[in-house]
């Protein structure tokens, strides 16, 4: 079973390379995602949300036609994986939509924390706010987001289905073998292997390289491949590029968000908000030392970060050194609150409408660090409207900024937004007109399809 699973995974990795086939695959994914977006009922959206959504879908069309997508380079992930912005500055579809909306800084901020993450795993209030402002749900952004194939290393002379295991076991086993053999000798840039399928159940790996590292690599490769089903009797000479332990370590730490997300997640109320952190990691022969210093000094936060990183880094017990200084941006700020207020205000005001509510409303939202809730004001409105609207807006803001059940106002907030009120009667009229327009469109398509038969 393991051989079958690995064989299928290797087949996908090979056939979905960064080539014309890969571009076609990503385009097909994006076109299918766009078709799914078209099935959503837009009635609950405000006019501004619908306009921004339509503009973003137009941007998506242009992105698909351009056909330039992120590439995978030196990450440690196997199989397909998303990448928000690649080393050339090419954005994924979601990242490009955000940038095209005029929020390139937001796109890059998300990339800094979630470069290889799936949208569904991103804990970003700013992303939630952007989606809401532009008439999308986070689930829709997750549908749009493609994943990309890893480039195939040029170390296999065969490309037929019975030799995938020969070269591509490296994708599964290489990092582990490098770390196991580093203690024997510093790794070379590459190792030359001769691989033979002795029979249907045994693969033999040898090397003519003289280094102790290469001999260790070949010996341990034999052990790793013992549980793989052999292909037909073939031989292959492979040149395996060897990453340094430091490179493997840096890939691992990047996949953990560079420690940024860990520090922020470990800063919990009532501890003072951490504004910056320094992380130093250094390996010994049998252990990895992690030292975290925060500003202001928070021993509990430092201990939490160390405990969170330790299990991921324990395998790097030789020749590792790493230092980073992080500036921790708050989860809740004026810049994250403003788009949520702008996107939700009209809808909430319509729901809370009472006779005499002015046609133009100004909403002001404020908070101080560690306030338990936001202060929401709508001057010039009745107490009934103001109470209903403030309660609803506070819930919307809290929901958007809650991550894994945890909510904290970790910076001062001041946000204002002025908008035109849509009364319930006006809303119902608009929705009725939109439903009628959709029905007319459906009938026209039905007629066209019938006439074409």
Class from helix and strand fractions: alpha+beta
How far apart are the first and last residues' alpha carbons, in Å?
49 Å
What is the overall number of helices?
15
Beta fraction: 5-15%
Share in helix: 40-55%
Radius of gyration: 27 Å
- Count up the domains: 4
Name the strands of the widest sheet in spatial order.
2-1-3
Largest sheet: 3 strands, antiparallel
The SSE order reads: HHHHHHHHEEHEHHEEHEHEEHEH
Question: What's the layout of helices and strands?
Answer:
Blueprint lengths: L1 H14 L4 H18 L9 H20 L26 H8 L3 H11 L10 H9 L4 H7 L19 H19 L7 E10 L2 E5 L5 H13 L10 E7 L3 H11 L4 H7 L9 E8 L4 E8 L3 H15 L7 E7 L6 H18 L8 E8 L7 E3 L5 H18 L12 E8 L3 H28 L2
Antiparallel strand pairs: 1-2, 1-3, 4-5, 4-6, 7-8, 7-9
Structure explained in plain terms:
The protein is of the alpha+beta class and 453 residues long. It folds into 4 domains: 18-144, no CATH class; 166-243; 247-327, no CATH class; 334-422, no CATH class. The protein is built from 15 helices and 9 strands. The protein has a 3-stranded antiparallel sheet with strand order 2-1-3, covered by helices on one side. Helix 2 packs antiparallel against helix 3, helix 6 crosses helix 13 (334-351) and helix 13 (334-351) crosses helix 14. Residues 1-18 and 152-165 have low confidence and may be disordered.
